């Protein structure tokens, strides 16, 4: 059993001291996950990978109820979900008028950059709708897209075969593409 797996188990059992010791062990993986998520964000966002990791970690092991994880896969799935929610909240906040929503960013050289749509919000809403249709498919998307897991890792995390996880991934991608394109369910 790896040190990370042991500490995740101890955190799940309610050991608050272990939660503080867990961050240095998983920081690099969480940072890589945050880098991957923020790479697809529109230019000009203010959220940095370090801030995203720290915010997600605080949500995972915060002062509220003790976390309940079934292992490393579940921990990283929870981290991916926390990062997704943080990115959605930031995108919604950017879209509000009081935070500059509806205004285009203009570079100092006078060249206006096109403002991309808040795809994170649309994807999150579509993902929530997919969860109502196929919770396993939605979980595979969260693990593969937001957590950066491979198909095999996602399969292990949700307890299905790799082939089934691949089928769920293909179904979810087709369903989400149709939903985001405005086609009927």
Structure, explained:
The protein is mostly helical and 185 residues long. The protein has two domains: 1-114; 117-185, Arc Repressor Mutant, subunit A (Orthogonal Bundle). Helix content is 68%, strand content 0%. The protein contains eight helices and no strands. The protein has helices spanning 3-12, 16-39, 49-61, 72-95, 119-133, 135-146, 151-158, 162-180. Helix 2 (16-39) packs antiparallel against helix 3 (49-61) and helix 3 (49-61) packs across helix 4. The chain starts with a helix and ends in a 5-residue tail after the last helix. 28% of the residues are buried. The model is unreliable at 106-117 (pLDDT under 50).
Number of strands: 0
Most strands sheet: none
Share of residues in strands? under 5%
Supply the number of helical segments. Answer: 8
Q: Which radius of gyration do the C-alpha atoms yield? A: 18 Å
What is the string of SSEs from the N terminus onward?
HHHHHHHH
Give the overall silhouette.
globular
- The total number of structural domains is 2
Low-confidence stretches: 106-117
| Average pLDDT, all residues | 75
Class by alpha and beta content:
mainly alpha
User: How far is the N terminus from the C terminus?
Assistant: 43 Å
User: Helical amount among residues, as a percent range?
Assistant: 55-70%
Characteristics:
185 residues, mainly alpha, Arc Repressor Mutant, subunit A, 2 domains, 8 helices, 68% helix, 0% strand
Give the helix/strand layout.
Elements: H1 3-12, H2 16-39, H3 49-61, H4 72-95, H5 119-133, H6 135-146, H7 151-158, H8 162-180
């Amino acid at each position: 059993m790896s040190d990370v797996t042991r500490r995740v188990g101890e955190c799940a059992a309610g050991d608050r001291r272990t939660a503080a010791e867990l961050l240095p062990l998983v920081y690099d993986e969480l940072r890589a996950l945050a880098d991957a998520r923020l790479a697809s964000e529109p230019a000009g966002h203010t959220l940095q990978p370090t801030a995203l990791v720290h915010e997600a970690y605080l949500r995972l092991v915060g002062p509220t109820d003790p976390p309940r994880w079934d292992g490393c896969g579940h921990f990283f799935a929870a981290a991916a979900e926390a990062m997704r929610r943080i990115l959605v909240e930031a995108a919604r906040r950017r879209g509000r008028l009081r935070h500059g929503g509806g205004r285009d960013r203009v570079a100092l050289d006078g060249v206006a950059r096109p403002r991309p749509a808040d795809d994170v919000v649309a994807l999150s809403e579509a993902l929530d709708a997919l969860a109502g249709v196929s919770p396993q498919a939605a979980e595979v998307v969260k693990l593969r897209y937001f957590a950066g897991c491979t198909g095999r890792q996602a399969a292990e995390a949700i307890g299905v075969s790799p082939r089934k996880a691949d089928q769920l991934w293909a179904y979810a991608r087709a369903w989400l593409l149709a939903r985001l394109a405005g086609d009927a369910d």
